[in-house]
Amino acid sequence: MEQSVTDLCREFGLRLTGPRRIIMQVLFDSSDHPDVVELHRRVTAIEPTISLATVYRTVNLLREKGVLERHTFGDGRARYETTPREHHDHLINVETGSVIEFQSEEIERLQEEIARKHGFAIVSHKLEIYVRPLKRGRSRT
Predict the structure, then answer these.
(1) Which InterPro entries match (predicted)?
(2) What percentage of the chain carries pLDDT values higher than 90?
(3) Cα 86 to Cα 72: distance, rounded to the nearest angstrom
(4) Element (H, E) at 99
(5) Do 97 and 59 belong together in one domain?
(6) Does an H or E element contain 115, and which?
(7) What is the pLDDT of residue 1?
(8) Which residue, 7, 103, 130, 135, is the most exposed by fewest CB within 10 angstroms?
(9) What's the number of domains the chain is made of?
(10) Are residues 13 and 75 in the same domain?
(11) What angle do CA 86, 90, 95 make, to 5 degrees?
(12) Co-location of 9 and 77 in the same domain
């Protein structure tokens, strides 16, 4: 993580409690997009006394402050990631639920071109592509 949890709390005016520090550290160390139940499982592996309610409250507070982004990825579960410094898109494996972050200048260029062609300027967007692993020996067509 580029910025320490302590610095981030100071920047956003958050009081840094023991449980909050652990929850935030687990979130910032996550390379995936955990839901609250998975986040709670990881947090209690470090500190068993942290309740699920504390994790929910902390996640909601961090969302309100703009520290976290919420995604559903079509499975109905609210999943979280730290607010990215750079824009990226997501590939979501429909069989496993795993999420791959990627960046593509070509996709960004095409989106801008399409918006402009229709008389618009993009204000914000997110791209979620739902994928399934290719079976060996089968063509895409």
Answers:
(1) FUR, Fur_C, WH-like_DNA-bd_sf, WH_DNA-bd_sf
(2) 39
(3) 20
(4) strand 99-102
(5) no
(6) helix 105-117
(7) 41
(8) 135
(9) 2
(10) yes
(11) 155
(12) yes
- The continuous run of DSSP H or E covering 62 comes out as helix 52-64
| Encoded tokens for 83 | 């607010």
- With 70 as the cut, is the pLDDT of residue 129 above it? yes
Average of per-residue pLDDT across 43-54: 96
Residues 102 and 52 in one domain: no
100 lies in the same domain as 51: no
Please check whether residue 59 lies inside any domain of the structure.
yes
Mean pLDDT of all residues in 10-16: 79
Tell me the residue type at 8: L
Is the predicted pLDDT of residue 38 greater than 80, yes or no? yes
Rounded Cα distance, 44 and 50, in Å: 6
**Structural domain containing residue 97:** 89-131
- Asked, for residue 47, whether it belongs to a domain, the answer is yes
